[in-house]
Structures are given as C-alpha cells and as structure tokens.
C-alpha cells in the first residue's frame, strides 16, 4: 500500500444531514494526470484501490497492454472511506447506517475536483462499484464519456436488500461476525453448478472441500476487515438508488449523456441479468447510446472476476478508440 495517496475532505454533508471530515485514499496507474484520458475504477465490497500491478485485483483487465491499457489511460481508484484498506483507525466509520452509495459518489466527485479532474473518459465498476458508478453519473450526467456498470444495477432490488439484512444480522449477532457473514455471502456470489464443478463432493481430512473453501474465505476476510468496515460496505449495497428524491429511472438515466454499456452475467443470482435487460429495453426508446452485453458463465456473480476473456472482448471496442482530446484537468 506504499502507493496510497490521501486527500482530506472537510465538512462533507451526508444525505442523512450529518457533517464529517474524512480522509479519501486513492491510487493512480499509468501516465501523469492531465496527459491522457482518465478512467475511474470503483471497487466492489471486498475490493480496494489496488486495481492493477502485482497485487491488483483487476490486474488481468488493467495494466500495460491490457484491455484498459495504462500506456494510454490514467487510471484512478479511490477507496470507499471506511473500507479499512488504509489501516487508518481515524478513517474507520462506526455509524455505518449514516451513509449511502450516493454519499460515496459525492465524495468521489469531491476527490476528483481536488485533483483538478472535471471530465472522465469512463467510470467502470463491478457489483457495488457499478452501483456507485451509476450514482456518480446521475450526479454529474455530462462529466463522463462512458458509464460501464458490470454485474450491477442502478438500484438495490428486494433480493439485494433482503440479503443485506441477513448479512447485517450475522455481523451484529455472531461470535465470529466477519467470518460467518462471508460464508453466507460466498453462496450469493457463486452458483450450485459452479461449486459442483469445482468440488464434486470431494473430501479432505474428513471434511468436504466446499467446507474448507468456505472456511478459508471466512478466515481471509476476517484478517482483511475490521467489523465496522464490513458493516459499512455491506450496508451500502442496499442504498444504491439513482431515483431516490430524483424522479423515475427513465428521467434520471436519460439525462446521462455518456454511452452506457451494461454488462451482466447470465448466471448471476445477486444482480439478475433479467433486471438489466428490462432496464435497457425501457430506456432505449429515450436514449440511443446504450448497449447491453452478457457474460456467459457457470460461476454466477463472481464471473466478472473470472471470465476475463469475455469481459475483455466486450470492453475492447471502448478502450481501443479513446479520443486523444479527452484529457481531464480543468
């Protein structure tokens, strides 16, 4: 984390009416800002700002001569304040229910403003990161060329809200809250078929391999997250809604001038592809520059972190034609 940079955001007003001071940590990859088109990458629930390089969680997609080529694009990634990646106790947010995904979107825009960035070539994000991308585009509909939400949605469905509640109950009542919450969450991110393909009921030392795998994920997350951080990140999932106090979906989304490229996973059981298909069909009569793509995979929601060949084929046309004029310092 030696590449982390910090911005101090003072007197930020939340949707809840509360005001706070916070530190916003970020990383950059590629050319110096102001010399190339800028891509903002929003991380998912357990992700962070390290999106490229040796330990980058999206290193197969972002880097030199990758789909988002850091020879030609400046990539910025913020950490959601309070996600704990900076290991800074003062940045840990205890009152997690005070925050919404829109608050995070506003904070990210403030961070970009501090960096003198007023226009983006693209905002891209998977899962929660895609929801925050939607919120950012709705807040500043003319400030980006491409909006790319992946395995995501512009709103939290009843299914997402219900599972956030289950996670929150585990986090507030279990003896090993992060560990146990992660066991449940992993079953939302994969499919029965994916687990069968991988484990096939095999055992090791009198325990099923699927059980070993789940316990391993639980322990890893327990070592990565503080409890308040995980509570916050889980809570944000249910707050995504670009229409809250803003009108209906068609009104809000049609004002976004960017090309919207929606990418779903056909087997996703968390953000259903059918929801995205309906959104695109409803929006298309009012907005021509929108496209829909679907990753075919047995792996469910996590396919956006697995099926890199398919994802690259979808994104290559966007990132191979970046206009040299879309630089972004004001």
From TrEMBL:
InterPro entries per UniProt: AB_hydrolase_1 (IPR000073), AB_hydrolase_fold (IPR029058), HAT_MetX-like (IPR008220)
Keyword Hydrolase: yes
Claim: Hydrolase is one of the keywords in the record: yes
GO MF annotations in UniProt: homoserine O-acetyltransferase activity; hydrolase activity
Active site: 127 (nucleophile), 268, 301
Stretches assigned to the AB hydrolase-1 domain: 37-195
A Pfam family: Abhydrolase_1
GO terms, biological process: homoserine metabolic process; methionine biosynthetic process
Keywords of the record: Hydrolase, Transferase
Protein name: Alpha/beta fold hydrolase
Taxonomic lineage: Bacteria, Pseudomonadati, Bacteroidota, Flavobacteriia, Flavobacteriales
């Amino acid at each position: 984390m030696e590449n982390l940079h910090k911005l101090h955001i003072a007197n930020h007003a939340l949707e809840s009416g509360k005001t706070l001071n916070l530190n916003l940590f970020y990383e950059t990859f590629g050319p110096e800002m102001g010399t190339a088109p800028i891509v903002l990458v929003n991380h998912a629930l357990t992700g962070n700002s390290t999106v490229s390089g040796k330990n980058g969680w999206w290193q197969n997609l972002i880097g030199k001569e990758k789909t988002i080529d850091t020879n030609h694009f400046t990539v910025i990634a913020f950490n959601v304040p309070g996600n704990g990646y900076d290991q800074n106790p003062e940045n840990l947010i205890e009152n997690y229910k005070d925050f919404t995904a829109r608050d995070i979107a506003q904070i990210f825009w403030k961070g970009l403003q501090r960096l003198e960035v007023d226009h983006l070539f693209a905002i891209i994000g998977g899962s929660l990161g895609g929801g925050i991308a939607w919120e950012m585009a709705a807040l500043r509909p003319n400030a980006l060329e491409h909006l790319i939400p992946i395995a995501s949605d512009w709103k939290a469905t009843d299914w997402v809200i219900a599972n956030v509640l289950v996670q929150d109950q585990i986090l507030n009542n279990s003896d090993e809250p992060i560990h146990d919450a992660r066991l449940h969450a992993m079953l939302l991110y994969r499919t029965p078929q994916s687990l069968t393909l991988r484990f096939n009921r095999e055992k090791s030392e009198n325990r099923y391999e699927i059980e070993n795998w789940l316990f391993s994920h639980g322990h890893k997350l327990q070592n990565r997250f503080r409890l308040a951080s995980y509570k916050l990140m889980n809570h944000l999932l249910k707050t995504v809604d670009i229409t809250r106090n803003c009108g209906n979906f068609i009104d809000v989304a049609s004002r976004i001038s960017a090309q919207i490229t929606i990418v779903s996973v056909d087997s996703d059981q968390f953000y259903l592809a059918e929801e995205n298909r309906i959104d695109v069909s409803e929006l298309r009569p009012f907005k021509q520059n929108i496209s829909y793509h679907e990753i075919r995979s047995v792996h469910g929601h996590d396919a956006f972190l697995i099926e890199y060949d398919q994802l690259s084929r979808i994104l290559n046309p966007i990132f191979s034609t970046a206009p040299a004029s879309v630089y972004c310092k004001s």
